[in-house]
Amino acid sequence: MPWQHIALMSLALPVLAEPMLFELQIKDHLFHPSVLYVPAGEKIKLLVLNQDPSPEEFESFSLNREKVILGNSKATLFIGPLQPGRYHFFGEYNPDSAQGVLIALPEAQWQQHREDNAN
Amino acid sequence: MRLFPSAFYIVFAALMLLISAHSLADGRVVDKVYHPYVQALERSIEYRYFYQRQADHPDNNTMGQKLGYGFSVAERAALEIYLIADRVSPEDYKLSGYELELRWMLTEQGQYSADWGMLFELERQNNQDNYEFTTGLLMEKEFGPTSLTLNALAVYEWGKTLNSEWEAEFRAQYRYRWRPAIQPAIELYVGENYKGAGPSLMGVHKFDKQKQLKWELAVIMAIDNDTVDRTLRFALEYEF
Asked: Can you tell me whether residue B94 is helix, strand or coil?
C-alpha cells in the first residue's frame, strides 16, 4: 500500500457527536464571563457574541485559535479536546481590557462544577 | 455538510497519487507552506526569499524574491498580489513576473478531524507571455501542541516559451507550537526535479493590537541526487 494511502487513512477519523455549547459575550471590550469552565477531554463549541459595534479578535496561543468577530455579530469556535488546565485568551483589538481564561476541568471536577451551578 | 470533508480526502489522495506518478514542474518548489485559515479584516505585507546552492548543479546560485500585499475580501477568502524577482544563473537578477493569489478557508478550525482550505494562484512571467496556474488543497491537523500542515497542489503551465503541461507539488510542515516567538518545524517539498526536507523555525512578534510580524526560516536539503543540495527559505509577513 503506498505511503500516501496510509497517511490519508490515519487522518480520516470519524466525526464525533455534536460538541457541548458554551457562550462568551464581548461588551464594552470585556469578555463575559472572563473565566469560563469547560470539560477537559472533549471537543466544545464556543459561541462568541460581540455586542460592541467595533470588531474584536478572540486570540489564544495556548488554544491555537484566532477568530475575528465583526461588530454586533457572532462567531463559532471549535476547541479541544483539551488537557485539564488553564488557557489564556484575549481580544487582539483591545488587549488591555479584553482578557479571559478558559479552565478545562477533569471529569469529576466538571461534574461537581455543574452540580454547584445547578444548585 | 458532514460528508464533504471526506470528498476532500479523495481529491487530496488523487493529487498525491499524481505527485507519486510523475512530477514535471519547471517552477520553484520550495516556498511557503500554506495554512488553510483566513481571518476577516486581515491585511498584510509579505516578503519571501529563497536561495539555492550546489557548485556543480544547474540551479546553483538561483535566487528568488517575492513582495506581496494581501487582504481579506470576505470572512473566509483573502487575496494577495505579488511582484516576483528571480536570478537564474547565468542571467542577471530581474523582475520576472507578478502573481495573484486567492486563499479560501473551507472549514472552521477544529470543526472536523482536520481543517481544509484551497489555494488558487495565477502567475504571469514578464516579457515571455508565460503563465502558471496553481490550485490545490491546504490541510492542517492539530496533534496536541503540534500541527501538521499539508499542501497538495496541481500546476498548469503554458505560454510562448513553455510546453503546456500539468505538474504537481507537495509541501508538508510539522510544527511544534512551543511559544509564539519560536516554533520549530520540519518541512518536506516534492516537485519537478526536487525532493527536499529540512528544519525550519518560525514565530510571531506582536507590536500593538493587531499589528504583528511573522517570520519563517528554513534550510532544505536534497533527499535525492537530482535536487540541488541546499535551499534557504526566508519570509517576513507584517499584519496590520
From this structure: strand
A81: CB partners within 8 A, 6+ apart: A40, A41, A42, A43
**All structural domains of chain A:** 16-118 (2.60.40.420)
Which chain A residues are closer than 8 Å to B176 by Cβ?
Answer: none
Note the CATH number of domain B4-239: 2.40.160.40
Find chain B residues with C-beta within 8 A of A83's C-beta: 144
What is this model's ipTM? 0.84
Instruction: Supply B147's cell numbers.
Output: 500541527
Give dist(CA B55, CA B118) in Å, integer. 37
Residue closest to A38 by CA, chosen among A119, A114, A115: A114
pLDDT tens for residues A70-115? 999 999 999 999 999 999 999 999 999 999 999 999 999 999 999 9
Q: What is the pLDDT of residues B141-176, one digit of tens each?
A: 999 999 999 999 999 999 988 889 999 999 999 999
How far, in Å, CA of B116 to CA of B40, rounded? 17
